[in-house]
Design goal:
Blueprint: H1 2-40, E1 42-50, E2 61-64, E3 69-72, E4 78-84, E5 88-96, E6 99-106, E7 113-116, E8 139-142, H2 143-148, H3 156-160, E9 166-167, E10 177-178, E11 187-190, E12 193-194, E13 213-219, E14 234-239, E15 247-252, E16 256-264, E17 269-278, H4 280-288, E18 294-313, E19 316-333, E20 345-363, E21 368-385, E22 389-409, E23 412-431, H5 438-442, E24 451-472, E25 477-488, E26 493-507, E27 510-521, E28 540-552, E29 557-573, E30 583-600, E31 604-618, E32 626-627, E33 634-643, E34 648-657, E35 661-662, E36 665-671, E37 676-681, E38 687-688, E39 692-704, E40 709-717, E41 725-730, E42 737-741, E43 746-754
Length: 755
Amino acid sequence: MGASSLRPNESESALLLKIKAFFFFLLFASAVIAQAEESDRVPLSARLLQKGDRQPLVGLQVQIPQLFLETWTDESGAFSFEALPPGQYRVQILVSDDQIIEQTLSTGSNTPVLYLELPEDKDDLVVLGKRPSKEVTRHTLTTEEIKTLPGANGDVIQAVQNFPGVARSSLNSGQLIVRGSSAEDSSVFLLGQPIPLFEHFGAVRAIFPSEIIDSALFYPGNFAADRGPYMGGILNVQPRTPQAQFHGRIEADFFDAGLFLEGPITDHLRFAAGIRRSYIDLLLSKLMNEYSELDLIVAPRYYDYQLMLDWQQTDHHIKVMFFGSDDALKLLLNEPLSSDPAIQGQAQYESHFDQIIAQWDSALTDRIDQTLSLSVNRNSTNYRISDSLRLTLEGYELNIGDEIKWAMASHLDLHTGLSIKLEPYELKAKSPLLSQGITASSTPLSAQELLQTNRDLFYYTPIFFTEAELHFLDRKLLIIPGIRAERSSGIHEIAADPRLSVLCHITPSTLLKAAAGRYSQPPSLLALDPVLGNDHLKYQHSMHYSAGVEHQWTESFTSDLTLFYKTFSNLVASEEGRNARYTNDGTGNSYGLEALIRYRSKKLLGWLSYSLMKANRKDSDQGKTYPFDHDQTHLITAIAQYQLNRNWTFGLRWRYATGDPYTAYTGSIHDNDSDTWLPYISDKNAYRLSSYHQLDIRIDHRWIFDQWILTAYLDLQNAYNHHNVEAITYSYDYTDQTELTGLPIIPSLGIKGEF
């Protein structure tokens, strides 16, 4: 009985052991299978780039709905889902609240690149003319504006001329004539350093491609103490940082062709490089050589080049730019001019420069930033008309500077700097006595005494500036006192210029502004020559006063109204009937009103500027007051640019300007000694040319491919072919006069490939 009772228990134990063994086998098999499946899992990844320009699409949400997974693209546009079973998956990319792009992707080690065209409302909105931090008047142009504004043809100088306060230059020469100041009173800066030339002759093209420019900041007056020494306006061009990916552009139009490349060299070092060469000389040579009196030896020809290196790491940023330009024009006069027999034979113009600029920005502490800068340029200019008139000026300009910005307290920032400018030059010239009186332009060379000079020049100019930014009322009120001082070795005089600006936000949308200051400018190197000019000349001075109001009506709509008044003293001048040699007896004034209204939405750019200005000059205390050579009472510019979609953009610009004043010739007398006719002249600038107006139209069309963009554009200048009078010309004996009109309708068709 006892033995029989044990058998069932033994059977049950054996059965339990078998069941446990079976379950252990299942668990082991499941683990092995799971491990095998896990080892077979692979990632799914891709990189999202903007179609055409290949910019990374950052921060887009990416989902795999069937697996309930989601992630976001990183700064390179890449995303990844790790450890998925091999196969294909439907991926959803959320590009907007109401648009999803679906792609089918396969797992694997490869990371495909997807080129997506985002909806237009995802494009960044560029705010135009945003309120500067401290300048009373500053206008801003972005790269896209420079490239596409109608009538500008991609030229930053032509684009700046649309702002109020800038007079229209004769024959669209591209000069900056700002608030009644002469063209030589304004300058262009790059990386804080002046450059000798920014445009090729005739204002056909700026020497910098728009792709290398981040923005252009224009100051028509009352600019800060670190900018000078100029009495007019300042255009400060900011180069942009090259892109982290390799990009390029090939472009050609009626005037020239160019190539631009940019990209990374290392993780911290990037480059940008460009080159351009004109070919309009090939066309003009055939056209102009048909005239019997004129043969082109070298038609207008230009080229330019740029190389930029940009290095950034932690608190240090170094930019180095090497660039240059070369212009040449040579022609042959087969017969002497009837009005001036001295002008005959070969005439030529050549201009060349090479410049290197290095800038090192570093953060010394949390509150102190330092900028070291170095600029070296070699430039040469050569004019020649037969053996009667010639000028060669060759030399170097070296600028070394150090600036400190110190956030001393929550309400006080200090900006100070010290620099020195060295100018060794060689001057060779044969010319009549230099003067700005009417005699120089009206008397034939045959009737003037020709002087010669051949000398080496060397000037050095130490420069110091400092200014403080004082913040009050929770930074709503900004007061900026400053001073700039310099002394040129060729003048033996210290120019000390105090300046003051006040800006106050009376509401978050309304800014009141006012400024006053003195601005000094040395005479030109030619004017200081003891033979042709006067080596006892002093600094010229101008007092700037301005006040105005800005208002931000909406996010897209802004207005700016400014009143200004300027006085001029110690101007380099000479007067008819007195000693024609240069003196510092010139005086003058200019005053006016500037209004600018700007509207910018995602589709439409609207721009209306108006200037009411008067400018006068006197060559001496006893002389008569006369209108400035570019005294243009009314200036109106209206711009409208509409982006129909991502592929089509239409724009137009209409400009109106009061005609320039000019001096008329009222008769003549024959000079037997030179066998020429000498004119009788009216009061200086007593007459005025007829008003100028012109319509320019631009159409851009883009074809967007995965990895590149093709753009074709038509820039039509003077669309209704208005005959604008630019000057009055006279017959050899000044008995007949003819109106010299500007260029007729000019279509410029171009094509550009970007990759």
